Amino acid sequence: MDAVPSQTATQSPETSLDFIREIIEADLAAGKHAQIVVRFPPEPNGYLHIGHGKAICLNFRLAEQYGGRCHLRFDDTNPAKEEVEFVESIQDDVRWLGFEWEPHLYFASDYFEKLYEYAIELIHKGLAYVDSLSQEDVREYRGTPTTPGRNSPYRDRSVTENLELFKQMRSGAFADGACVLRAKIDMASPNLLLRDPVLYRIKRAHHVRTADTWCIYPMYDYAHPISDALEGITHSICTLEYEDHRPLYDWVLDNISIDCHPRQIEFARLNLTYTVMSKRFLRQLVDAKLVTGWDDPRMPTLAGMRRRGYPPAAIRAFCQAIGVTKANSVCDFGQLEYYIRQELNQKATRRMVVLDPIKVVIENYPEDEVEWFIGDNNPENPADGTREIPFSRTLYIERDDFREVAPKKFFRLSVGSEVRLKHAYCITCREVVKDEAGEIIELRCVYDPHSRGQTLDGRVVKGTLHWVSAAHAVPIEARIYDHLLRQPVSTGDLHADFNPESLKVLHAALAEPAIAYAGVGDAFQFLRIGYFTPDPDSTPQKPVFNRSATLKDTWAKLEKRLNQ
């Protein structure tokens, strides 16, 4: 590998010196490595979630920071659950987050022949044997955390017999589950993972890359360390649940003829309130059709977050802020939303949209007149320019912005009160029109023609409402998303945990005409409502928008109190 000058963490303004960087800097200072090489090794059996996003950011940033490289390697050792769709979605996610791996794209299946050869070497050394126990018996013989395991009756097979049986396994002579190849380590080890772990199993399943060439497949704990070593990985960084796997990782590399021995380092995985970081649970949601798919905006998958309108820069900022530790903890979902709002506030184009419309007729405004007002596209970024907003006699406002009898401190519209329409005039409600059922269907108002852009006579108008012109309104569908789970922490019960109020679809929403230019990936702030993005389901005839986040930021307030 090419040597690249290393960069110390203290030279980087973006990252603090966490325990992983301390290890890397010590290794570089000691001359152990000329260049660090890390990897992100997902299994293509589902879509990545934000927990994987944290690992992506960590590994690729380490490579950038220290002048090294990061490999993208697919752990495709279980063909029964792996699909090309997942491989492609994972590559899309990594690139969406802003990282690139080319030309270092690898698959565990690239090494199937080498993995087989190393298994033969272990058999020759008397360190692996073919076990013909059933799966149930293998589990029974393994023992428990408090009782040692028992040796399999097949553990002392000769090297010659094991070699012949393993070759027969590869040739397809045995049925699935008839036997396995196990490492010969220590059936009394307090670490259950060292009690003669399975290295290979028979599985007749079509592999997306090797087709039907193989009917035996290596286990993750065997394939992973060898794949790391073959690629010259220096630091194999994984989440804390693999800490007990590290002795097996080292045992495999210590007992085969390979020069490279990466160092495995574990860090705490990301956990978020009101959601789950489990592909198994997420797959159940998809299979049960409780969500529309892996990219449903309620899902914590990166594809779901992209569809919901989360900016990748916000996810990177969140992952950097929560840092890297050894202690498991749960992050408040509001902390993620804080970074989403921070980013969207800077980039989102402002538009006026009424989600639950109620008609307003301005009786003293000319019936056929249309005025055009100028509104900022984004007051945070004047370079985004302005747009024209039509104003006419008949408008729509939010139903919730009106009260027939206003409670105390209600500064929106009520009978006899005055409010300002954003960018336009002040209006006063004079009359309420109801249908036969007593529901309000129309508000009769008057406007002050002298209030354009100002309030005269020294009077104070406290409320400002958003609105759309009825004659120019664009019908849209708005999808309002809430938390995936009912409660902060999952109970593990799919149907009990799932929040049935996690999606509300509003079909009657109306938007100002400038919304017609929206494209998938654009970000909007619907004034006084929240941040929205067009959904791929949108059509020119019926635009569809997903709410990315509300305007209210409870996390920022909590953080301020905690820092006082």
Architecture overview:
This protein is of the alpha/beta class. The chain is built from 14 helices and 27 strands. The chain has a 7-stranded mixed beta sheet with strand order 10-25-26-27-23-24-11.
Secondary structure layout plus pairing:
Blueprint: H1 19-29, E1 37-40, H2 50-65, E2 69-74, H3 84-96, E3 105-107, H4 112-124, E4 128-131, H5 135-142, H6 159-171, E5 180-183, E6 198-202, E7 216-218, H7 220-230, E8 235-239, H8 246-254, E9 263-267, H9 279-287, H10 302-308, H11 312-322, H12 333-347, E10 349-351, E11 353-354, E12 357-362, E13 371-376, E14 386-391, E15 394-398, E16 402-403, E17 413-414, E18 418-421, E19 426-434, E20 440-448, E21 464-465, E22 468-469, E23 474-481, H13 494-497, E24 503-511, E25 524-526, E26 530-534, E27 544-550, H14 554-563
Parallel strand pairs: 1-2, 2-3, 8-9, 10-25, 12-20, 16-17, 18-21, 23-27
Antiparallel strand pairs: 4-5, 5-6, 6-7, 11-24, 12-15, 13-14, 15-22, 18-19, 19-20, 23-24, 25-26, 26-27
Helix pairs in contact: 2-11, 7-8, 11-12
